[in-house]
Design brief:
Length: about 100
């Protein structure tokens, strides 16, 4: 039922967008995820998620840390770290790029 087909060896990848720019120190709270700060004032955490239970665990962590959740989207395996959205429409440009 996941939106991104994977093999048993390859976990699904998700992009979790939260409000605010998270400092690099937050990376320790999300091992295996990359943090990308966007010009629209959000941070996208992108990384592998083993299954739905693991996804709910990551979302609980976001909640427990008090981070305002904006979106959760599956990322195609060949899409790199970018969520499947239009940069022009969503302000997806990276800060400092």
């Amino acid at each position: 039922m996941s939106g991104t087909p994977t093999t048993p060896e390859e976990p699904a990848r998700y992009a979790i967008r939260v409000r605010g720019h998270l400092d690099d120190r937050w990376a320790a709270r999300f091992p295996g995820f990359s943090l990308t700060r966007r010009v629209d004032g959000t941070t996208v955490l992108t990384g592998p998620v083993a299954d739905q239970a693991a996804l709910h665990g990551w979302l609980r962590r976001v909640r427990d840390l008090g981070l305002p959740l904006i979106s959760v989207v599956p990322v195609a395996p060949d899409a790199g770290t970018e969520p499947p959205t239009s940069a022009a429409a969503s302000g997806d440009e990276e800060v400092g790029s």
